[in-house]
Amino acid sequence: MPQPKDPRRIVTTLSNLFAEDPPDAVTMHYRLKSKSSLNSAPSQPPRDPQSPDPETNSKITHSPDFSAIHWEDGQTYTFTPRQRPAVALLWQAKEDCTHFVGSASLLEAAEVNTTRMSDLFKGSAAWGKVIVQGVLHGGPAGTYRLAPTGSEAERYGAA
């Protein structure tokens, strides 16, 4: 029978996670998610971002702070400090195979005073190529995602 988790360890770990200013809900969700395996081994090892994406068999990578991503078209796309949290959420959704993220969540993570994603990514070469509307790729209206890659792109006629 598995040993129960020590509540003191969980509280200490959570306190360490949120030692700085209280995070917003989106940040808190992803911090908790990344630390959800307290006292337990992960069910599978995390994928090395430098290894080929199993879905596309190509190298799709990002810098640790999401200031840049290298996409399957061979281009490196760069992002401003305001854009990076939104890109990180989109990347996490791709890795989780949920793909679609609501614009409100992305804009909240970016801490911007706009209601339009196009304003956040204005002037970015990634807009429309790497960051695309979910509704154009099988998702609900008002969502965005990283562009489909590999066989998934073929399904949506994006390849």
Short description:
The protein is an alpha+beta fold and 159 residues long.
Can you walk me through this structure?
By secondary structure, the chain is an alpha+beta fold. It has a domain at 61-155. Helices cover 32% and strands 11% of the residues. The chain has six helices and six strands, in the order ααβββαβααββα. The chain has helices spanning 7-17, 25-34, 84-95, 103-110, 117-120, 150-155; strands at residues 61-62, 68-70, 76-78, 101-102, 131-133, 143-146. The strands form two sheets. A three-stranded antiparallel beta sheet has the order 1-2-3, with no helix packed on it. It has a three-stranded antiparallel beta sheet with strand order 4-6-5. A hairpin with a 5-residue loop joins strand 2 (68-70) and strand 3 (76-78). The longest helix has 12 residues, at 84-95. Mean pLDDT is 76; it is low at 10-15, 32-44 and 47-53.
Number of strands: 6
Please give the alpha-carbon distance between the first and last residues: 49 Å
Shape: globular
What is the strand content? 5-15%
Major sheet attributes: 3 strands, antiparallel
Indicate the percent of residues in helices.
25-40%
Number of helices: 6
Low-pLDDT residue spans: 10-15, 32-44, 47-53
Radius of gyration from CA coordinates: 17 Å
Strand order of the largest sheet: 1-2-3
Mean pLDDT: 76
Element order: H for helix, E for strand: HHEEEHEHHEEH
Category by helix and strand content: alpha+beta
